[in-house]
Amino acid sequence: MAEKTFTHEELAKFNGENGQPAYVAVSGTVYDVSGKDAWKGGKHHGNVAGRDLTDILYNKSPHGDKVLKGLPVVGKLV
Question: Where is the Cytochrome b5 heme-binding domain (predicted)?
Fold first, then answer.
């Protein structure tokens, strides 16, 4: 099966609201954060699902990319 690709516009639909899953992109990889309590409703400490959070994760987050470990990968951001 071919890997799913997302444009920024397509990714924005997966914002965790109205029954949608919550996806975030980091360094071109799209992760499903729906199962994380911290992302309930598609929001986490002012961040919103459906976006590329690469800059925030690497330059503003206190925990860095270790939080990505174990998250389901759903595709690539193109």
Answer: 6-78
